[in-house]
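Notes, Module 5: Reading structure tokens.

Key idea: the token line is not a picture. It is a compressed description, and you learn to read it the same way you learned to read a sequence, by spotting repeated patterns. We will look at two proteins. The first is printed below with its tokens.
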Amino acid sequence: MKTSNEIACRTLYGKEKLVPIERLVLRPSAYGIVLHQDKILLVRMQHTGHFALPGGGIHTGERIEDGLRREVREETGIEVRVERFAAFTEDFFYYDPLEEAFHGLLFFYICHPLSFDLAGDGRVQDGEVEKPAWIDVESLESRHFHSHGGLILAILDSYGLA
């Protein structure tokens, strides 16, 4: 039973876990919607095998767009130009392997690729994602994404990209 000092968090495996509010870590993050020739750049989550956008946590003192470029480079090996802000959402997420809970502030940006040589798994500089790939936008459904698939597809649709 939920108490007033707990919040329901989505777990890595799609379950719900009640977490004391004082355990939440505020985590701003940015994600790139990188498109090229009717394909979107995605990575796979190692723990679940589902797709995710490249991106992640922004360091204290780091500008959001700089952090996004860094995250895309670490996870995919390519450089991007951040073109425009697309959407914002909040997320309450429990990361099972480390037993950590986050209040995520998620910023989504449309990006343009400046390079195309994707990193192989041995070169991906992130312990949570693997296999960066260009995926046909038309083949995607919300259920293919680790999280926020409906929002990602809605962004693509609103910009006429899907």
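Here is the second protein, with the sequence above and the tokens below, as before.
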Amino acid sequence: MAAAEYNFTIEQGATFSKIVTWYDSTGALVTLTSYTAVMKAKVNKDDSSSVIDSASNLTITLGGALGTITLTMTASQTAALTFHSAYYDIELTLSGTVTRLLKGIITLDKEVTK
């Protein structure tokens, strides 16, 4: 399965939350109970450092039988972002098998009121 492409925007200085639901090829929810997930975003795909990383400034919560993947950042975490746009992907792992579920571009909507 190739990663689905999904672009989205983060508003700098605001709390961020995005919920994605994973369905299999038959339309059934994928149970994520035993999965782990990681996400990184980089300005250039081959950069050595990430502007967003689930190991540091992004929280990923898996919804078990609901098939949901919730991405969250606090207002202070989004306020610290300075990029214009960045490439990202989300990978889920189950028993050593890695699935690259989503990829795309994140646009940062810069904050005016600080």
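Summary for the second protein:
- The chain has one domain: 4-109.
- Residues 4-109 form a domain with the Immunoglobulin-like fold (CATH 2.60.40.10).
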